User: Fold these one by one.
Assistant:
Number 1:
Amino acid sequence: MRPVVIAANWKMHTTPADAGELAATIAARTRIEAPVERVICPPFVCLAAVRDALSGTGVAVGAQNVHHELGGAYTGEISAPMLAGLASWVIVGHSERRRDAGETDELIGRKLRRAVEAGLRPIVCVGEQLDEREAGRAEAVVRGQVHGILTAFGDATIGDVAADLGESGVVIAYEPVWAIGTGRNATGADAAAMADTIRAAIAATGLVDLGAAVPVLYGGSVTAANIGEFLAEPGIDGALVGGASLKPDEMAGIVARAGLTAAARAGGAG
Ligand code: PGA
């Protein structure tokens, strides 16, 4: 049974002065019985405040990025070992970083390796551009991203790749780029079809067990009003939420709906 995960990506919002209070409010408003894994990913400089605010709440803390090297002359960067004690999850390969920082599948695979080595649970983002979807190439693009990332991950590895990545608790977020921050979400059916494609692409690299077990989240203009369309799909295991994740009311609604799915799964009903 795959877990249900709701991850908040705060992007470049909040300050160390206000992040803790917002995190505490969201934690309180999303406290439910059902086993939904909640994660908040604030900016690096807010990690300590959010960690302190979330202590004892059951909500985990994630970083939004990590460097592909362990240390060295990389001005302004943050390595995986530096996140020890601050974060237990990390987002890698977000499309805004592909767009603004030139991240490639190869680089994202190396970041994934560093995250796994450091014991961080990675949320690996994939997703097509609008022109790629309109050209009927969305599935091929995402398949290529999965393959490229896992190949680079494997190349950066010494030892048993399958066991390592499988045990890391890795999660994939399918985020069509045209749906991020636009108010234009994918349909539940399209997201579910892509989740199948992602699982098959992982299995095709030889990681057959991981392909079946990996949670796949949808991301892109998720709100309390539309989360149900995604969680109604058995192949979708939660959401990576951007804009709405800064609003406690929205997060309360999203996590409440996720709780229904988690409870149904725990009861063997879905
Ligand atoms: P959005 O962002 O919910 O604001 O569309 C999602 C994301 O980028 O993870």
Number 2:
Amino acid sequence: MPRINTHYQKLRAGYLFPEIGKRVRAFASAHPEARIIRLGIGDVVLPLPRPIVEAMKAGAEEMASAETFRGYGPEQGYEFLLEAIAENYRSQGAEVAADEIFVSDGSKCDTANLQEIFALDNVVALTDPVYPVYVDTNVMAGRTGEADEGGRYANLVYLPTTAENGFDPPLPAKPVDIIYLCSPNNPTGAVMSRVSLERWVAYARKEGAVILFDAAYEAFIREPGLLHSIFEIPGAREVAIEFRSFSKTAGFTGTRCAFTVIPKEVYGRDASGAPIPLRALWNRRHTTKFNGVSYPVQKAAAAVFSPEGSAAVQANIDYYMENARIIRAGLAVAGYRVYGGVNAPYIWLRVPAGMTSWDFFDRLLGEAHVVGTPGSGFGSCGEGYFRLSAFGLRENIQEAIERIRTKMKI
Ligand code: MLT
């Protein structure tokens, strides 16, 4: 019998969302009459916009003819998509070249896999609460020790981001090599200000650290003046890698397409201290382990940037952000303290005093038949908080809020 990777045995419980799914299925089978409204996992519900589907169909049609059929494509993505992405960055005030972009099947996979190009003895910093993928994949790789009682792993540096510090990640108290930041944030819904991003870029430049910046929710930013990309900060190209996704932006959770940007100026060092471009390492990893996203899907993704595609995508984002507004307003009327939901599709609320996040999950499911995500599932600083997703049909959002208002008023 082969020996297993024992680092997996350090992992706490199941991955958050399957665990929630298991509990919801148990409740549903015990209460078949309950009409459950799911605002847990952030999964889109609106269909793909028509211009995007038409582009996907045209791409599929090309595969049906000998003249236009395509086999393996470039692992990094087709030029037409890379150029469209680079142009979109330029329109946002960030300089990104097409050959710095790596198209993939998802930011979950990219944020999970990118740690492979770094040595195991790097010190990793991440916020608490945090998207669990960053933590779990570093545990699996063996970059951490065991978890303590509160679920925190030894060797990771946790940066508490709570209402007390305005959900603005504080700089680490000790030197770190790799920093995961997510803005707009999953789960808190907070957005890092320009000042905060500047402070982080300055820190990374001074300490020789790399920032892994997850911008999967940038399209949900509404307020003017907020940055969509870390590359809008001068000097960030030397210290940052950015992840973006079509999943939430354009309804691709089931279609799968995302990308990672690694500027040519960002380096790590080898055992002798010599600088090595991270872009070259990721290119090596990507071309070895990945064969590219399918042609019709890349055609669909490129249509997101066309005038019709981007208008349709914007209409869907507006719909979800109106949901977020309804959730925020309804919860406030019901007596809850709410955060997020203004520039992000997640609403982060304080659970009633004396309850844990999982107590609230059970009560919300049991009394209102509404599913959300317990804040403690995102880290110990998430205890006492709860996340609701704005990705739902309007009538379900309205009904969920009505049920919370009438059954769970505080
Ligand atoms: C979430 O609900 O946090 C997201 O849907 C998870 C993901 O994007 O992988």
Number 3:
Amino acid sequence: MSRRGESIRAVKGTRDLLPAEAALWQRVEAEARRIFLAYNFREIRTPVLEQTALFARSVGADTDIVTKEMYTFHDRDDESLTLRPEATASVVRAYIEHALYNEGGIHKLYYIGPMFRRERPQKGRYRQFYQIGAEVLGSDHPSIDAEFLEMLVLFLRRLGLQEFALLLNSVGCANCRAEYVKTLRRALERLKASLCVDCQRRSETNPLRVLDCKVEADQPVIEKLPHILEHLCPECRQHFERVTGELDQRGVAYQITPRLVRGLDYYTRTTFEMTSSVLGAQNAFLGGGRYDGLAEMLGGPRTPGFGVAIGQDRLMLAVEQAGQLKAGDRLSAYVAWMGEAALSPATRLVQELRGEDVSAEISYEPIKLKKSLGVANRLGARFAIIVGEGELAAGRYQVKDMTTGQQEEVEPGRIVSYLREKLASSG
Ligand code: HAM
């Protein structure tokens, strides 16, 4: 408990996004909405709070997320609730709860919002982090997988990203994966003594997890383990071949990565991640795959699914590094007035500009011209409009382009259209 007078800080692993940063986040979200619209996805908003059982059943009771990372508490009526660590489970829950399957066809849904995992905070890893996610429910067609990955690549290119890799794998279906896990278990029996303590435990509890061990010394041993791609059943193998074939046709580059098994239990067949070399240790900035059995696990009808979650915090680091995308929220006009008589017409002008969606600011305290222009600069205004005694007498205000320094006299009635034209031509 903090004492009175002591300053209270943000909770560990959470942070404030101040306006300068938030502006670029908004820009990325706007690009996401634009691409989702083009591919016919519609937004779904699910609650941040869910029943704990939802994640235990879908993400998996033995996963790191469920055993170690969830913010779970008992509500006053003793119900166990959890702050969502991810949203795929919530989307599928909502799909079943509202019987969207009755509408038939394919549902394409997207969401943007905060998720919560109690991980050790570091750069690109937070306890409250943000995801931009999308899910396709109702088809297991391999073209769905390929089209989705094509959309992601287009989105990243629009954000100006060049340095990323698409890692691709198939984890098979319930049948062939079970057989593979047996084979893996047998192989681990012989090799586990030379692996780290965690992997020795995983060899017993969840052998697939050994494949994403990051311990350097374990890598040569893990490399020798059997690959899941060599153990797929004929249907899963054919599905994977069709996905990769279509990616080739669509011009989407990928790297087949047999060790990519992902940290959530609901996946079947295609799994993928994208990594960026500019991100350092936390280099996976998005991940996802197919989950054809999830709806049934949650008590719904059989509904195959495919989706992604983009870690927005990490995506933003890559976007900043690439430096191509600019926040588009620059102030258009700062109105500088001099002398009491100018205050009222200057206020009217600001009101008119704002009513016409030209962003504008004014100071109600009298300020000298030089200082006013300094304020306009600090606010990042594109234009300063000067209204002084001389301008009032002449019936024309001075409009100064703060980027070029050029100044023009414009009649008050023409200022909105004048600014609009200038702003449109400079982008
Ligand atoms: P995930 O791999 O657990 O998948 O998370 C997706 C992305 O969220 C990660 O690649 C990472 O960029 C970001 N992320 C995860 N944890 C953190 C954290 N603590 N701090 C910052 N970023 C983080 C899922 O969540 C699945 N729901 C994806 C999916 C959708 N699969 C099918 N549909």
